[in-house]
Structures are given as structure tokens and as C-alpha cells.
Amino acid sequence: MPQHVPDSSNPPAQPCAEAQSIRGRIGPDADHGFHPAPHRYHLYLALSCPECLRIAITHTLLGLDDRLPVTYLPAVPDMRNGGYHALRGAYAATSHAYHGPSAAPALTDRWTGRVVSNHAADITHDLAVRFPGDGPDLRPHGLRRRIDAVVELCDEAVTEAAQRAGEASPDPGRGPALARLLGALDQVEGWLADGPFVLGDAVTAADVHLWVTLVQLDLVHRWHLDADAVHRIAAHPRVWAYARRLLAHPAFGPLLRPGDITRRHHHQCAGLEAAGAAVQIVDWTAAEALTPAPVHPGR
């Protein structure tokens, strides 16, 4: 059963140092340093973080609760440098005299007490291909290039473009950025004409990445866009019907914490609020009425 680290009084927002990149990989068998032995590893995730949310959904889809336990961390880091106290020991054991933030996500090795990886894409990939779960094949061999293309589209043509389009100061690049974002949503709209999921009839890693991207677009980036831009983003009926449909999925909606995502955003972001903040596209809290949230000790 997932554990939950209680929240504490949070330090004031300030610029945070970047965590040292730790990129150990899970190998296919015992000949590799990190092989996928049941109960060897532990995940630390903050569901307010999009990268952590993707890992949590992947973990749930694969049915890994018994083989790979999870601790859910507070929405906002509880150390002044942007790290978590719960991970401080694991980072210190990994790197001598480590002074950076003890950041999430983190996959730790319970045998050594060290961090195996804090690289979200690597963790998500290794869960999907190295751990024998009871769920779907999230990275089918024949779809891997297409999955990677969806991830690239989400990161560059949606998330990065939305950030540029929502910059507070006047910028001639905002118009092209919004056009790029709308073009990407047009492309997704077309893909969803062919099946219930972005690559056809079965859920894949592409859906996990895209859905969290849409959550962030509505709950985070919308705060810095004007109302006209948000209405144009919302004018993609298949995209947002898909988002609502996955909100009702037991591996997606119950892990979503809209209030925590908004809280983390306001804690970290100094940008100006725009009129689009008042034009929410999806009622993300609807998942609470559709499926029960997981129970965490101490919550």
C-alpha cells in the first residue's frame, strides 16, 4: 500500500538549485547491476509534479503495488532548496557530500539505501519494459517510435509552446508559440478520430504522457494565457472528451490532485495571472465523484 509523508509548514518560495542527475537503469536480468527484483526498489513521488504523476499512472496501470511500493510526498517540497526531507538520506548515501536538493521523482534501492534514478523519463520507461506487471504493454515494440513522437509533440509543441505563449511580458514570439500549440492540438484531434486512445484501441505510454500534458495545460499554463487563447485551445472536442474519459479511468483520475497541482504552481511561479485563468476547460475534480481516491496512511 502506498505510504504518504505528511505535509509540514512549507518554506517560502525561492530559486531552487537543480538536483544532480542520477541515471541508473534497470537491466533485464541479474547480470545487470540493477535488475528488476521484486521488493528491491521504492518510489518517491509528489503527485503535484507532472513527471511524478506520469510515473504514478504507469505504476498503477502495470499493477506494481505489491512489487514496487510508493511513498507519496507533499505537494510542495518541504526543504528551502526545493528538496524533500524524506529523500535527504538516500541522496547523501548516493553522492558523498551531496548539497543539491533531494528531489522527486526518485527510484531508490532498498538494499543499499541509494537513489538509482531521479530521471523521470528513464524511470517511466524502465517500469514499462523491465517490471513484469499485470497491466497492459505500454510500449509495444511496433509502436515505440510513434510513442516517442507523441512525447516529443507534447513536450515541445504543447508544453514548451504554452510556456512561451503565456509569458507575462510582451513578446513577438507569443503569437507563433500559440499557433504551434494549436497546431499540435489539431494533430491530436485528428489522431483521436481513429480510436479511443491516441494510438488506436489500447492504452499506451503515449496516453499517459499526453493526458498529463493536457492536465498541465488546463491547470497550470491556462493561468498565464488570455481568455481568447484558452477558448481556442478548448475548441478541440475530441481532445477534451478524451481527457474527461481518462479522468474516469481507475489508473488516471484517482491519482489526480488538482488542488495540489495549483498549489505547487503558485508556490513556484512568479508570472502574472491572465484572463484565461477564469476559463477552466475541464472539471478535473469530477474524478472524486467517479472513483475513490487511494487511501494513504496518515492522510
Topology at a glance:
Blueprint: E1 3-4, E2 41-45, H1 50-61, E3 70-72, H2 85-94, E4 106-109, E5 114-117, H3 120-130, H4 144-165, H5 174-191, H6 205-219, H7 227-234, H8 237-247, H9 258-268, H10 287-290
Parallel strand pairs: 1-3, 2-3
Antiparallel strand pairs: 2-4, 4-5
- Write down the overall mean pLDDT: 88
The share of residues in extended strands comes to 5-15%
Secondary structure: number of strands: 5
Cα-atom radius of gyration? 19 Å
Tell me the overall shape.
globular
Helix-strand pattern, N to C? Answer: EEHEHEEHHHHHHHH
Biggest pleated sheet: 5 strands, mixed
- Bin the helical content: 40-55%
Low-confidence stretches: 8-16, 289-299
Structural class: alpha/beta
Within the largest sheet, what's the order of strands? 1-3-2-4-5
Q: What's the end-to-end separation, in Å?
A: 13 Å
Notable characteristics:
alpha/beta, 10 helices, 299 residues, five-stranded mixed sheet, disordered C terminus
Give a short synopsis of this structure.
With 299 residues, this protein is of the alpha/beta class.
Describe the 3D structure.
By secondary structure, this protein is an alpha/beta fold. It has 10 helices and 5 strands; from the N terminus they run ββαβαββαααααααα. It has a 5-stranded mixed sheet, with helices on both faces. It is globular and about 55 Å long. Mean pLDDT is 88; it is low at 8-16 and 289-299.
